[in-house]
Amino acid sequence: xxxxxxxxxxxxxxPAPKAxxxxxxxxxxxxxxxxxxxTAGAIAMPDKAEAFNLDEFLQKHFHQMxxxxxxxxxxxxxxxxxxxxxxxxFSVADGGPQHGVKYGYALNLSxxxxxxxxxxxxxxxxNQHRGSEERGDQIEYIRVxxxxxxxxxxxxxxxxxxxxxxxxxxxxxxxQCHQCNDAPCVKACPVEAxxxxxxxxxxxDYNWCIGCRYxxxxxxxxxxxxxxxxxxxxxxEVNPDTHYLGNRPRYKGVMEKCTFCITRVRKGLNPACxxxxxxxxxxxxxxLDKESVVRRIIDQKRIFILKEEVGTDPSFYYFFx
Amino acid sequence: xxxxxxxxxxxxxxxxxxxxxxxxxxxxxxxLMAVGGxxxxxQTVHGLGVTGMGDQVSWGLYIANFTFLVGVAxxxxxxxxxxxxxxxxxxxxxxxxxEMVAIGAIVMCLLFVVADLGRPDRMxxxxxxxxxxxxxxxxxxxxxxxxxxxxxxxLHVPGYLLYKKYKGEEPAKWLYLPFVYLSIxxxxxxxxxxxFLYTGLAGRPYWNAAxxxxxxxxxxxxxxxxxxxxxxxxxxxxxxxxxxxxIIGFLRGVVLIAGLINVFLxxxxxxxxxxxxxxxxxxxxxxxxxxxxxxxxxxxIWTSITMNVLALLALISRKFEKRGVIVRNIPLLMLIVxxxxxxxxxxxxxxxxxxxxxxxxxxxxxxxxxxxxxGIWGVGLxxxxxxxxxxxxxxxxxxxxx
Amino acid sequence: xxxxxxxxxxxxxxxxxxxxxxxxxxIVNLSVFDPFPGLPMPVMNRPQVTAALLVVFAVVCVLPAxxxxxxxxxxxxxxxxxxxxxxxxxxxxxxxxxxxxxEEEHYEPMEWEDDDGVVHYVPFGEMVSIKDLLGxxxxxxxxxxxxxxxxxxxxxxxxxxxxDLSPADSVWTLVHGGGNLWCxxxxxxxxxxxxxxxxxxxxxxNESQFLCGSCHGPILRDWTSGIHGKTTGYWDPALGEEDQTxxxxxxxxxxxxxxxxxxxxxxxAPVLRIDGPGDKPVHxxxxxxxxxxxx
Lengths: 321, 402, 295
Prior knowledge:
The complex is a heterotrimer of chains A (321), B (402) and C (295).
Chain A: H1 26-38, H2 54-58, H3 67-84, E1 91-93, E2 103-108, H4 117-125, E3 143-148, E4 170-175, H5 184-188, E5 194-196, E6 202-204, H6 214-218, E7 224-226, E8 241-243, E9 255-257, H7 262-265, H8 272-276, E10 282-286, H9 293-300, E11 302-304, E12 316-320
Parallel strand pairs in A: 1-8, 2-12
Antiparallel strand pairs in A: 2-10, 3-4, 5-6, 7-9, 11-12
Chain B: H1 2-15, H2 20-46, H3 61-74, H4 77-85, H5 89-116, H6 139-167, H7 173-199, H8 212-238, H9 246-276, H10 282-288, H11 298-317, H12 325-351, H13 367-396
Helix pairs in contact in B: 1-13, 2-13, 3-5, 3-7, 3-8, 3-12, 4-5, 4-7, 5-6, 5-13, 6-7, 7-8, 8-9, 8-12, 9-11, 10-12, 11-12
Chain C: H1 13-20, H2 24-33, H3 47-65, H4 73-80, H5 85-90, E1 110-113, E2 119-122, H6 144-148, H7 157-163, H8 167-170, E3 195-196, E4 202-203, H9 208-215, H10 217-224, E5 231-232, E6 246-247, H11 250-253, E7 273-274, E8 281-282, H12 286-294
Antiparallel strand pairs in C: 1-2, 3-4, 5-6, 7-8
Helix pairs in contact in C: 9-10
């Protein structure tokens, strides 16, 4: 059996390292103190300060790099990540899309029990920020909505239930990136830092994003998450098997999102949320393959698209049976 | 060339000479800038986590201020149109001042956008050919373009006119008139594009309404000229600038009409939202009445509406017009505050509440965020002050070729 | 619904095999779960041998005592349908403090009279322990190996614990069928190592899906095409090794005696922020407000 993973995120705050005036700054200490008081203790020193890096500063857009430059960049990133997370096994891949493949996801709302295992498996697989001292919130790509039976109105949903699931009179609707074919986030980005790959996955170039968060405002599925602080992942929890456009560690101040686990699916594996689901509610496959399970579901079941009226043409379907 | 450099040198020297009151005002603004600079330093070190924003409400005070100030910047056109299209001589004489206000406002807009960026170090990604500029698809790309364009237009026209005035020469019409006419369209466009930034988002029903752009323009032509009137009152009272009596009266009329249209559009919006009572009313309900016990914005918006209505009634009655400088400008100040609240608390924040997944998370700017905003206001007011001083200097002949 | 389903024509196992042989992926998956299809079963577990033993029991012990009982399995089914001889002895452990029959007692056919004067008789003799195809005791229908193949980082253990995927515990509270099923509707009377279809055809424990499907037809159809049920590994099985793509059998997710998923405490809820050291995580309180406004 594989190593047992701890699914309980670091929710409880650790004592924040106090900002301490260095030697020689004594004269300004009172001023700093005053201002620190003004900022109401919202500020603490980051875990690992990100030093200025010229290569990183001048790094080109993923589409503008030649293959050689990509290899060089990825090698540099592997070195940086190995150093940052005290490892030697980081790999940053850039495996491209397969010809004739377009990913689709179908989720069976009759079966989902709302256990949130997908949410947490996703955090582990995709190296999300685990929650910091300042804010305590880990970045999660999947939000499981506890819905009222008899309504599809997300405004009646509850997100933070902690009681036993499934609860009487409720059903559960996990929402994550729908990998839209007419994606509002892609249209919104002023610098083309996010785009849809030929296999349908909407990706972000974390080294190109300027952090304006217009895409977050544009997304009807609330699928785009921002690194409000420098992301913190304990060394032993980091997943070293990464993809340039997917789960490689991110930077402070950039957007990130679900990529259907690009590092897994491009190798043929299912996304992590799919494999962890204890109920088999989640179905993944190639929309261009008539024999794929997703196509069968679209053919045989009654599917619906969340917020279809928004017209984003998602690759994510919900169904009942 | 030497002439021009002398002009620049003298202008700058003129900008920073003045009475104690003037210099203390500049010092005060520099204090604000220092506070803002410190807070912004904290923000760059620790990330935007020092703000009150989060994934639920991902835009806050910065973008609210940005939206408001785009309106102030656009308002200069309310002097350009009567001045240049209808040849109202008095108004034409004040156009320069309006344009100086516009420059300060645009600079603040740009600074607020930069302050809101998670990676300001990567701004060059927007500049072709090094970067990738997602034009014409992204509305934000449009916004960057029109704002910078408007800044250049407003730097060119008054800069050229003032230089010619300094030299005592007649300005060549072909060198500024085309830009003046262009700036009329451009001013409308900056606020329209900013409105489209919001209305283009189908996933945010509160913003995804056609009435938003007209409301933006109406409120901008209400708050903007009101702001300019305050500036003109100060210049009129404290300098020897030859200002016609009718400019301010004219602008008060503009403020009143735009304000009435704004209220009418607001009523249209409220009616549509609440009479149909569709599922999309949640944001408006949150704003005006609170939702599921969350009602942080309710006092703000009703304050705004009350101030708006009272100020407009005061302007309609015209009783205040003949009163002292403080009293007659109180309604204008109320309108500015009311519209500032309407743009921030009334427009930007509730668009995020509830989230597209129905989560209700309230937003409250952090102390650091307020400090950065104050700093940016400090920068903008500083720029406005010195530019207005410069315009006044040239106009009254304090700065001239030796 | 399903347990009341009495098809006119009962599909045999072969019939199901034909049905699914049109599905390429299914064949791959079947081979995963039936790795030794040709392996002979231990002699004692062969149904013929067991049946012969039962006949001997019947002739020597049972027939003289009660002429109504024969060794014929079908007769036994019809005779005992309607009351629960298994449960009478082993009982619902929650309601019967002490099982009436202790383990060491069930070596021989039993007869006793209950409080109402009804005579009960159990002809089965020794309860043969359940063995899997390899003759190992206590068949585990949820091979952990398969679950382990999901991937390096995924934790299914908590799910295993939650669902308590050992039928031995849940057998005493047979919830499945809402009282309309009893043990021998699925288990063979004579051969405890086998499941029995309505047609009388015997199935091994590794073929239980056909038994499940004999009532839950539409679900078997969906499972066959991959729509129902949990799969792990490769979205395109051709991209991985043959045994890396796994389709779980019915009983790997559902406890066959109590098929509904049991409720569980979910993984931690999303946290908005932590306001300061020592403070509790700030959650939304919308649920409470909704409840308040409902009253």
